[in-house]
Design goal:
Layout lengths: L9 E2 L5 E5 L2 H4 L12 H7 L20 H10 L4 E5 L2 H4 L12 H16 L3 E7 L5 H4 L8 H17 L5 E6 L1 H6 L13 H31 L2 E7 L2 E4 L4 H23 L5 H13 L12 H7 L6 E4 L3 E6 L15 E4 L16 H15 L4 E5 L4 E2 L9 H19 L5 E7 L13 E2 L3 E3 L8 E3 L1 H11 L2 E2 L14
Parallel strand pairs: 2-3, 2-13, 3-4, 4-5, 5-6, 6-8, 7-9, 8-11, 11-13
Antiparallel strand pairs: 1-17, 9-10, 12-14, 15-16
Helix pairs in contact: 7-9, 13-14, 14-15
The protein binds ligand GBH.
């Protein structure tokens, strides 16, 4: 690919969406203030040994009390949008949503945040679910219990009703794959080990919940509010380890299990064929009479198909993928795929082991999505890189400048050279925050946060200036008018 390592000068479309993202549990703090109910992440973080150094999100960045500070940071980055999430148990402490059950003070925080953003000419992009399920629902099975899908639609309905006059971009779920992993043995709430069946039941219900929420918007709000509702999926690009057919099929399976699991039901209808075949065959070989992957009936297939006005994509890294005959037992989402994935040793490292920058991977994935799902509108809803608190340089984060410059330039190639309908780019994250099982050890922010200081001061890292420069230029000006960011492209 001759374009791969070359810099492309050019601009994104005039209405391109530039954003940074956060999530409620990772930044808000105030975990039990003003009537907020506990979420599964409060419960999980408060258990001994779950999180690095037993950190938790009790205070986090204290964003619940720092609307002005957060908006000032956003202004300094020139962004057009801010992606944040609503904490379900902050607005409905018992989980069950109704106007009667609404926690006025909790909802007021989001009202104030939305108003402050709009006053600053920054549009909100709101995620309804970034992993913090009300604990009350977990006590009856959480996402493995299909009634939660019904409650989710009611929750979405009331959020549209309260905020939809000003919020025009809604994301139902952030990374359902990761939500499910919390039931399948990953270091995520609720921390269960229901690996081989739990993960599939969870996502089955999340797909139903997503579709219900989209239909609520479509039926009740779209006409008057005129917004869009999508879903955010995370996926690494999959590079076949060799030219062999087996490895190319394996890379395709990685994408079908990784992205197709959700994108296929939503953009095409039903789970990907290869996933249905693979899990059924494995299940039979294991002695089960039916597949561990649940089955959608015709009605469900039709209700879920077509329920995304856009695809949100969280993309950080790529993997080499080879075919691998997994052991039959124990069964898991991972072994169901019959693949082996790894990072090429030449890719640079960063502060988290799962992430190595491969800028050209984002362009390949965007092209794949365009072809596979009929050219949907795509917003990159997260992308970024981390340093480790104690080891790496904090403010002079040259490698983050390189990361954003190179990744965004590859997104530009997807737009200009491949004609991908990419609508926006979002940096993860506005500031360092509670990085789930890593606690405050891994830092993804464009702003440094001092977690030892009760005031949680925010300081721009060097990358903040470069990101703001790219945003101000809406891309990469031509060689005659070099932008600051261009020097990070070789
Ligand atoms: C995003 O997930 C999340 O949406 C965001 O909240 C988070 O802060 C951000 O990434 C940075 O991590 O530890 O080896 O088991 C990105 C997808 C999926 C990447 C789970 C890390 C765990 C790998 N993530 N994965 S490992």
């Amino acid at each position: 690919d001759p374009e791969r390592d070359r810099l492309l000068y050019g601009h994104f479309p005039p209405n391109f969406t530039w954003a940074t993202a956060t999530a409620a549990y990772q930044v808000e703090g105030a975990w039990d203030e003003d009537g907020k109910g506990p979420s599964i992440w409060d419960t999980y973080s408060h258990q001994d040994g779950r999180i690095y150094n037993n950190h938790n999100g009790d205070v986090a960045c204290d964003s619940y009390h720092k609307i002005n500070e957060d908006v000032e940071m956003l202004k300094s980055l020139n962004v057009t949008h801010y992606r944040f999430s609503i904490s379900w148990p902050r607005v409905f402490p018992e989980g069950v949503p109704s106007m009667k059950n609404m926690n006025e003070k909790g909802m007021q925080y989001y009202q104030d945040l939305v108003n402050a953003l709009i006053a600053a000419n920054i549009e909100p992009m709101v995620t309804l679910y970034h992993w913090d399920l009300p604990q009350t629902f977990q006590d009856t099975g959480g996402w493995e219990n299909d009634i939660v899908a019904v409650y989710f639609a009611q929750y979405a309905d009331l959020c549209f009703k309260q905020l939809g006059d000003r919020v025009k971009l809604w994301i139902t779920f952030n990374e359902p794959k990761v939500v499910a992993s919390g039931y399948g043995g990953a270091r995520k709430a609720p921390g269960l080990g229901h690996q081989s069946t739990g993960v599939y039941r969870v996502t089955h219900n999340i797909l139903k919940a997503h579709a219900k929420a989209w239909h609520v918007y479509d039926d009740k709000y779209r006409k008057n509010q005129g917004g869009q509702v999508g879903i955010t999926l995370n996926c690494d690009w999959a590079i076949p380890a060799s030219e062999s057919e087996a490895d190319r099929d394996a890379a395709d399976r990685a994408l079908q299990f990784g992205l197709g699991w959700f994108a296929h039901p939503i953009f095409v209808g039903d789970y990907p064929d290869v996933m249905k075949k693979q899990v059924l065959e494995k299940s039979r070989a294991q002695g089960l009479t039916s597949s561990r992957l649940p089955i959608f009936n015709e009605d469900e297939i039709n209700t879920i198909r077509g329920t995304a006005d856009f695809l949100g994509l969280n993309h950080y890294t790529s993997q080499m993928i080879a075919h691998h005959n997994s052991e039959l037992m124990p069964s898991s989402y991972s072994s169901d795929q019959d693949i082996l994935g790894w990072h090429d040793e030449n890719w640079p490292k960063c502060g988290v082991s799962w992430l190595r920058p491969v800028p050209w991977g984002i362009r390949q994935l965007l092209k794949w999505i365009k072809e596979e799902y009929g050219d949907p509108a795509v917003f990159i809803t997260e992308s970024g890189i981390a340093e480790k608190s104690d080891v790496e340089p904090m403010l002079n984060d040259t490698w983050r400048m390189q990361y954003y410059t190179a990744y965004i330039n590859e997104v530009l190639k997807a737009y200009i050279l491949d004609d991908v309908d990419v609508r926006g780019y979002t940096a993860w994250s506005l500031m360092d925050n509670f990085e789930w099982a890593d606690g405050y050890l891994s830092r993804f922010g464009l702003h440094y946060v001092d977690f030892n200081d009760p005031a949680r001061p925010r300081t721009p890292k060097a990358s903040a200036e470069i990101f703001a420069d790219i945003v101000r230029n809406n891309g990469f000006p031509n060689p005659q008018i070099l932008s600051k960011s261009s020097k990070y492209l070789s």
